[in-house]
Amino acid sequence: MKYEVIDEGGFKYIEAGKGETLVLLHGLMGELSNWEPVIDHFKENYHILVPILPIYELPILTLGVRSLSKYVNKFLKHKKTNQVVLIGNSLGGHVGLIFTLAHQESVKALVLTGSSGLYENAFGGSFPKRESYDYIREKVAFTFYDPATATKELVDEVYKTVNDRSRVIRILALAKSAIRHNMSKDLSRITIPVSLIWGQQDKVTPPEVAEEFHELLPNSELNWVDKCGHAPMMERPEVFNEYLSKFLNRILLK
């Protein structure tokens, strides 16, 4: 990761650029480096904040998608930032949705890519062969359209995480929290502009999930990324950035 992680006030995050604020929220197994192509592309014209969600730090009894949303709220207050564009992948999208419902006046627009909140087909309720490196490599590759996107570095990181008992307990707790917190009945209350940027071959949150989000979110657009799985900003960053740029220009430069 070429960007320095700032550690201050109980928060760890990356910050770059000046202008309208984009807040990038990573997924359950996501790393800040997942957003590197987005930061590179937009830092010249936007103020970018990428907080590390405290998945491994919050008390286990309070750990859930709601507590992560509250953390984002505290972080943005710490940064004295209002009127942001939230951009979330996977669990980060879910956290962004919950935050937006609670603080819609603070969010200019929302971008979801492979978001949970309706349905997701992730690791499931356990890691049955977490000691097997080959098994973990297959599960990481499942996330992408092109298995080559699952680099050794990425697989090593996930393997290390799921073989840390305290971490895997937290991951499973959060995954269950996300599944329990279905948002289908709440989405009609989100009236700000929403852009859905979705991998057409996403096996974790399949295309029908994107279509349901589009149907339930009253002010949404749906953009497909072909030959792409669950993390378009990693696997097809040029296409993702183009869609995002067009959306931001339409929303922010009115």
Structure description:
The structure is a single chain. With 254 residues, the protein is an alpha/beta fold. It has 9 helices and 8 strands. It has a single domain (6-253), classed as Rossmann fold (3-Layer(aba) Sandwich). 39% of the residues lie in helices and 18% in strands. Strands 1-2-4-3-5-6-7-8 form an 8-stranded mixed sheet, with helices on both faces. α7 (207-216) links the parallel β7 (194-199) and β8 (220-225). The radius of gyration is 17 Å and the shape is globular. InterPro entries: AB_hydrolase_1, AB_hydrolase_fold. Keywords: Hydrolase. GO terms for molecular function: hydrolase activity.
Q: Could you give me the name of the CATH homologous superfamily? A: Alpha/Beta hydrolase fold, catalytic domain
* Total number of helices: 9
Domain module count? 1
| CATH C-level class | Alpha Beta
CATH architecture: 3-Layer(aba) Sandwich
Spans of 5+ residues with little confidence (pLDDT < 50)?
Answer: none
The percent range for helix content is: 25-40%
Q: Secondary-structure element order, as H and E?
A: EEEHEHEHEHHHEHEHH
Mean residue pLDDT: 91
Tell me the Rg in angstroms: 17 Å
The largest sheet is: 8 strands, mixed
Number of E-state strands: 8
**Within the CATH hierarchy, at the fold level, what is the topology?**
Rossmann fold
User: Which overall shape is indicated by the principal axes computed on the Cα atoms?
Assistant: globular
Q: Percent of residues in beta strands?
A: 15-25%
Termini Cα gap:
34 Å
The helix/strand class is alpha/beta
Domain AB hydrolase-1: 22-242
Organism: Pedobacter hiemivivus
Keywords: Hydrolase
Protein name: Alpha/beta hydrolase
